[in-house]
């Protein structure tokens, strides 16, 4: 190898070294730090909360059909606002419709029989008035009793029709409140029952439809650990602030509603009924006005700080 070739290789090595120093010495702008929630109170009590719709009981409305059958139509969509009585879905009611039609035919038959017996009674009465010997007193009494019995038969047929018609109305699931559809758990062709619907992911029976009220207020149910319960103020008013995960540098003031004075197992967030826990929590309910610039939905987990004792 000649001296010239060695010189060229050495120069290339020097240039490569200078370039690597320039490239790797460049300052990289660090990413913004992750925002975390902060305790706005000197002695704040932390609790995890779950957002719910604003109801007198502080819970979403779980709707179950009162009859079983295949879902034949779904009228309401998730996020749609419904008024009380609006249809949500229908189940297969073909058999029940036939029963109602049969009851209607039975009413017509019983009414026709009643008319026939009334006419027979009227003839017997007129005949008895013209000639008492033409109709016996026993035959006249039997005709009167037959009309009374037939009137009761018509009444029974009408009641049977009303009962089957009322049951037919149950095959249309209607909104029990003025509110928003939070979740529709069934689709066309699914099977609905009073037990709910089977969820293949959780392997549990869930409500067919969930509804709630999200305007003007929403509620948050927070769970205070039993260890922290003694540090809660004894007053009837609690001051608290909520932080939405992902927007943890902005607190949302909460308005106290009530304390549910019964500690429950801490399985509300995991929803695992078979979970073994040795910690109990105290449910505390607050309400808040939903900010226009932050997306908050029922079922969302949030961080809550409650002002503790001084």
UniProtKB/TrEMBL annotation:
| GO annotations of cellular component type | efflux pump complex
The UniProt GO MF terms for this protein read: efflux transmembrane transporter activity
Gene3D superfamilies with a match to the protein in the record: 2.40.50.100, Helix hairpin bin
What PANTHER family is this protein classified in? Answer: HLYD FAMILY OF SECRETION PROTEINS, MULTIDRUG RESISTANCE PROTEIN MDTA
Please identify the protein, giving its name as recorded.
p-hydroxybenzoic acid efflux pump subunit AaeA
